[in-house]
Structures are given as structure tokens and as C-alpha cells.
Amino acid sequence: MAYRPERLGEVLKQELAELLRQLKDPRIGFVTVTSVDVSNDLRYVKVFVSVLGSPEEQKATMTALEKAQGYLRAEIGRRIRLRYTPEVSFKLDHSISEGVRLVELIDEITEGKPGDRDDR
């Protein structure tokens, strides 16, 4: 039964991605569901999202998602048959922006050494 939270996480990831596309709130920008963490008792869900835009736009999007938690939970309850509809919380995922920053740093380092890449 240890695999059930992972299976539910994948289903929730797909459903939440679809629901977020359907939300009409203008504060919600370009949001991508990066991962979903389901507790072992299936009652709590952490949804990690990546938001494209400035820090102000990210904050506005996270505020709008917090306001939409009740609606999203109700929609999940209608779409997925579970004994208990899980509590949903959203967390901003910075991994994509950190990855881009690391790639830029690596590019800066490799550009500083002109002959290193051609010799390999």
C-alpha cells in the first residue's frame, strides 16, 4: 500500500494542472505544477508550482491560488472518488529558476576559458 500516495499524487497532478488552466482569475499567470506530495494517510497534499514572471507576479499568483484552495478541493472531490478529500496547499517551487541561474553561471565560467571546450 506504500505506492498509493504516489499513484494519487500523479492523478492529482494531472487534475490540478487541468483545473488551473480553467481558472479565470486574472492574477494567475503562467503556472506549472512541478510535483505533488501526498501524505501517507492521503489527507494532505502539497502542490509545488512554478510561476513564470517577476516576484510580484509570483506573489499575486500564489495569493490567488490560496484563495482558490476551497474551489480546487471541491473540484478534486467531484473528480476523484476518495473517502476523504485531501487538504490542498500550494508551495512555490524555485528549482527551475535556480537551475537557469546555475546554467548561466556555468556558461560564464566556460566563456572565461577560451581553449578548454575545443580541446576535448
- Sequence of secondary-structure elements: HEEHHEH
Which strand-content bin applies to the residues? 15-25%
Largest beta sheet: what is the strand line-up?
1-2-3
Topology, number of strands? 3
What name is given to the CATH topology? Answer: GMP Synthetase, Chain A, domain 3
SS-derived structural category: alpha+beta
User: In this structure, how is the largest beta sheet organized?
Assistant: 3 strands, mixed
Rg is 19 Å
Q: How helical, in percent, are the residues? A: 40-55%
How far is it from the N-terminal to the C-terminal residue, by CA? 49 Å
Count of structural domains: 1
Q: What general form does the structure show?
A: globular
Poorly predicted tracts of residues: none
Average pLDDT confidence is 86
CATH superfamily: K homology (KH) domain
CATH class: Alpha Beta
Topology:
Elements: H1 4-22, E1 30-38, E2 44-52, H2 55-67, H3 69-79, E3 87-92, H4 95-112
Parallel strand pairs: 2-3
Antiparallel strand pairs: 1-2
Helix pairs in contact: 1-3
Name a few traits of the molecule.
single chain, alpha+beta, three-stranded mixed β-sheet, 4 helices
